[in-house]
């Protein structure tokens, strides 16, 4: 049996373990939710693609001559590119949402660790003999300097900057792809003598 009064280090270790399990559960839940969203998106896109491909094939097989066939191909390029751009946007939104949830869980974890570390240090300092004031101040300062909140706060700007760079590069790339598809479609329409 455990003694009525537990060692403060044992209770701190138990609390730390419980918090660690909660942290991993939060990370796992976020990862699973993101994978579910991606799977749903991919299944929806696949179903739509199969249906659209069947219809496009019917239209192409019904072409009366080469010019009509080429015109049909050109008319299908723009909607296909727009769907690819939309799909890319959905994937980006899912990834950004997952990243935000992971950052939130990590921030909470570091905050909890910092708080518990400070509490454990304060409790440990109260247990030391009074004659060790200098040692107490030195150890307390060491705990405060090694505070995980400070370390996390120093790392977060870099992570946020990386997220902004990725987000900033996805939009211009998708816009450029859409413009390229539209230019190709317009050029095909002009060559064919039709307008969109």
From TrEMBL:
| Residue stretches making up the Phasin domain | 19-110
Ranked from the top, the taxonomy reads: Bacteria, Pseudomonadati, Pseudomonadota, Betaproteobacteria, Burkholderiales
Full protein name:
Phasin family protein
**InterPro entries, per the entry:** Phasin (IPR018968), Phasin_subfam-1 (IPR010127)
What domain of life is recorded for the organism? Bacteria
């Amino acid at each position: 049996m455990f003694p009525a009064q537990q060692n403060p280090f044992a209770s701190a270790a138990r609390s730390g373990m419980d918090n660690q399990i909660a942290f991993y559960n939060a990370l796992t839940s976020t990862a699973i939710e993101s994978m579910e969203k991606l799977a749903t998106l991919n299944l929806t896109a696949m179903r739509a693609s199969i249906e659209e491909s069947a219809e496009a094939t019917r239209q192409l097989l019904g072409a009366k001559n080469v010019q009509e066939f080429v015109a049909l191909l050109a008319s299908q390029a723009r909607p296909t590119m727009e769907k690819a751009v939309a799909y890319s946007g959905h994937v980006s939104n899912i990834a950004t949402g997952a990243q935000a949830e992971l950052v939130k869980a990590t921030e909470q974890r570091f905050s909890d660790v910092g708080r518990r570390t400070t509490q454990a240090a304060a409790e440990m300092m109260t247990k030391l003999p009074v004659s060790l004031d200098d040692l107490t101040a030195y150890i307390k300062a060491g705990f405060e300097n090694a505070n995980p909140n400070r370390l996390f706060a120093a790392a977060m700007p870099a992570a946020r900057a990386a997220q902004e760079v990725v987000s900033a590069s996805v939009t211009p790339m998708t816009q450029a792809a859409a413009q390229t598809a539209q230019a190709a479609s317009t050029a095909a329409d002009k060559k064919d003598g039709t307008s969109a």
